[in-house]
Amino acid sequence: MTQLSVRHVTRYRYQRPVRFGEHRLMFRPRDSHDLRLLDTALVISPKAEVRWLHDVFSNSIAIASFEETAAELSFDSRIVIDHFGLDYPEFPIEPFAATYPFSYASEEVPDLGRTIERHYPDPDGQVDKWAKAFMSASGHTDTQDLLVRMTQAIGQQFAYERRYAIGTQTPRETLEVGSGSCRDLALLMMEAARALGFAARFVSGYLYDPQLDNQSESEIRGAGATHAWVQIYLPGAGWVEFDPTNGLVGGANLIRVAVARDPRQALPLQGNYFGFAEDFIDMSVEAEVRRVDEGPPRAAVGA
User: Fold this and answer.
1) How far apart are CA 104 and CA 108, in angstroms?
2) What was the pLDDT predicted at 41?
3) Phi/psi-derived region of residue 88, left when phi > 0, alpha when psi is between -120 and 50, beta in every other case
């Protein structure tokens, strides 16, 4: 078990005071067997009325409503958790699913639903072709080995870049350019896994790297910042964490906040303002993740 603190600050600046519409926040993780939420704090400026709800995936959502106008809008979220993630876990996969291809149990298929379906067009089959390259020539492949090799291949073959444009690249675009943010690389793996018939879903949260606690240079891509990865459903093992950005398997340093069918459903923060387009100056995102009992924090800009 590791006790971690996370601080996530987002600021928007404007030329003059503007009026704000509702903002939707996904900052608060859910308690589970691998994560225990100990403390939370959320400071919003200007003052907002906040109500909470669960979305269709049972993620914890805060809706902030504003009455005041302002030239700056800020959201400062802080959480403290006990984290029980496992590094490179052994998957207790059911014997019938240990070798790919396999079929999910009929009673699970309705609940897995659209997590098995492809969501992005692949008219000339490039994503299919890339995914099938991880299968053995015999057509029967060790399930765990297939998914581990796919995860590691993305980490090794694709360049990581912090990209601040709104939205996510399509899997085809990521294949073509050979690079992407953690969101882009997670979506590529998710759609590649679905092309092979796996149930997969998108995860948004944070990535912890112990080196940052000691002011060391991190070798992990996206460390200490907002992060995205993939969960794939394996009978007997359940939803297993895969971080294609770093080619890592297991959730040892992954702090899960939101789980969704598509990246557009797991945005950490979204909202609008009322004013002229030229009123907007810029936005900044900073996140820090550190052990509670170790040295001074080191900030990193979110991906």
Assistant:
1) 7
2) 97
3) left
CA pair distance 62, 179, nearest whole angstrom = 33
Closest CA to 131 of 172, 94, 99: 172
151 has a pLDDT exceeding 60? yes
> 256-271 as b/e, with b when 16 or more CB fall inside 10 Å?
bbbbbbebebbbbbeb
The one-letter amino acid at 39: D
Neighbours of 50 (CB within 10 A): 13
Among 120, 133, 232, 231, residue whose Cα is nearest residue 172:
120
| 102-147 residue pLDDT tens | 999 999 999 999 999 999 999 999 999 999 999 988 778 999 999 9
How far, in Å, CA of 301 to CA of 204, rounded?
15
CA 243/CA 21 separation, integer angstroms? 34
What is the number of other CB atoms lying within 10 angstroms of the CB of residue 51? 10
* Residue the block writes with tokens 């679905």: 194
**What pLDDT, on the 0 to 100 scale, is given for residue 303?**
40
pLDDT tens, 36-53? 999 999 999 999 999 999
Task: Give the other-Cβ count within 10 Å of 10's Cβ.
Answer: 21
Q: What is the pLDDT of residue 301?
A: 37
CA distance 96 to 166: 41
